[in-house]
Structures are given as structure tokens and as C-alpha cells.
Design a protein that fits this description.
Penicillin V Acylase, Chain A, single chain
């Protein structure tokens, strides 16, 4: 998952409104959003290569989302980052207690951001800083650096989410289909080279080998209602289908 923007409103009837794009190589096998057969009551996509998930929710309203930290100098992790979000969704620990356990083994993974919550609280953890933080109400963005790092596409997506507080799922999915690329002078320098920075600079990424594999809208209400909609894509951004679930 490479870009997540979300409005956290714990005192509002809709406590969470989140939209996200998962960017990955097209050849990496994945299963689309569904209820997991091996963990009933968990609704998420699945990485079929290493297991785990990039984003999901449980029937009880526990939710998790994950992004990698872009750093070509970092070592490959011994364990798959996708298990971090999956284990939370399948478990019973609260966000704070779960993150305390994660912090003890964070060095076993490549760099990551982990977003965890339920209907009453939302937490963020960045493995490079080693800091866990409970988030106050607000509109946030999370990409492949730290929370609210002002990369152009994060600022653009976050502002559009803030400007459309009543947008339906289809409008929010359209927000994440934005292919605008900023000027080279606005791009971050993360050590991957200018050509890659350009490719990765748009909200929606499309190429022959790497791009946005899924766009997801997640909404969570205080009244035990939730919904999740995922649209899948193939090479060059070709649409592959859409799944909508709710509880």
C-alpha cells in the first residue's frame, strides 16, 4: 500500500472515512477483497506470495492498513510486513498493546507504517522513528515516508478528501484514480532515481510492470456499521473488477 488518506472523527456518526491505493508489481499474486476462509469475520485482500494483507477490517470494527517505507538502502526484512496488519485483524489485542508487541520485533521487517484502530481509537506506528502515536481527530495522509510527509501526491489527495466530506464511494474511488504528475522540482529524492520518482509521483500509478493494483474505500460508523469497497487493476491500469462488502 503506497498512499492512504483518511478522516478520523471519533465523535462523529461516521468515525472513519479512508481511501487508499495499493501499489505493487503486477506479477505478484494477490487475492481480491473477500471474507477470509481461514479467519471468518476478517475482510481484506490477501498477498498470495508471502501472506498477510495491506488493508482490512473485521466484523467487530477492527481495521488495519500498511505502507512500506521507500528506502533503497534498507535491508530486506526477515518477515513479511503483511502479517502485521493480518495478525491485528485476526487477534484480540487493542491497538496500543498490539503496537507494543510489534515494537519489540520491528527490526525483523523492512521499513513500514502501520495504522491500527477500532471505533474508539486510531494509532500510527512508523518503524524508522520507532514511535507509536494515538491520533486526534483530523484529516491525515500516509505514504511511503512518515505520517503527513508533504509529498505532492499526498497533499493533493488529502486536500481532495477534505474538500469532499460527503462524497460517495464511487467519487472517492475516482479521487484515487488521479494520474496527475507534479513538476520534477516538486518531487522528493528518495534515492530511486528521477525516472522512478516520476512514475511514483501520481496518486494512481500505471505502467507495464508496476502500478496501482487496488483502490479501496473504507468507512466505519459508531453504530456498528461498516463498508469496504475495492476496485482492482492490472497492467497499464486496466480495470479488473470491484468488490463491495458491508456489515
Amino acid at each position: 500500500m503506497c498512499l492512504i488518506v483518511f478522516a478520523w472523527q471519533p465523535e462523529h456518526p461516521q468515525v472513519l472515512r479512508l481511501v487508499a491505493n495499493r501499489d505493487e508489481f503486477y506479477e505478484r499474486p494477490s487475492a481480491a477483497l473477500s471474507e477470509w476462509q481461514e479467519a471468518r469475520g476478517v475482510f481484506a485482500g490477501c498477498d498470495l506470495e508471502a501472506g498477510g494483507t495491506w488493508l482490512g477490517i473485521s466484523a467487530e470494527g477492527r481495521f488495519a492498513a500498511l505502507t512500506n517505507i521507500r528506502d533503497p538502502k534498507q535491508r530486506a526484512g526477515l518477515r513479511s510486513r503483511g502479517e502485521l496488519s493480518a495478525d491485528y485483524l485476526c487477534g484480540q489485542l487493542g491497538p496500543k498493546a498490539y503496537l507494543e508487541a510489534v515494537m519489540a520485533r520491528a527490526a525483523s521487517y523492512g521499513g513500514f507504517n502501520l495504522l491500527l484502530g477500532d471505533r474508539s481509537q486510531l494509532w500510527h506506528f512508523n518503524s524508522h522513528s520507532g514511535q507509536a502515536r494515538r491520533l486526534e481527530a483530523g484529516v491525515y495522509g500516509l505514504g511511503n515516508a512518515d505520517l503527513d510527509t508533504p509529498w505532492p501526491k499526498l497533499l493533493r489527495a488529502r486536500q481532495r478528501l477534505q474538500d469532499e466530506p460527503h462524497a460517495d464511494d464511487q467519487r472517492l474511488l475516482a479521487l484515487m484514480a488521479d494520474t496527475h504528475r507534479p513538476a520534477d522540482s516538486e518531487l522528493p529524492d528518495t534515492g530511486v532515481g528521477l525516472a522512478a520518482e516520476r512514475l511514483l509521483s501520481s496518486i494512481f500509478i500505471a505502467s507495464a510492470t508496476y502500478g496501482t493494483r487496488a483502490s479501496t474505500v473504507l468507512k466505519l460508523g459508531r453504530d456498528e456499521q461498516w463498508s469496504i469497497t475495492e476496485r482492482s487493476f492490472g497492467p497499464h491500469g486496466a480495470p479488473l473488477g470491484e468488490v463491495a462488502l458491508h456489515g
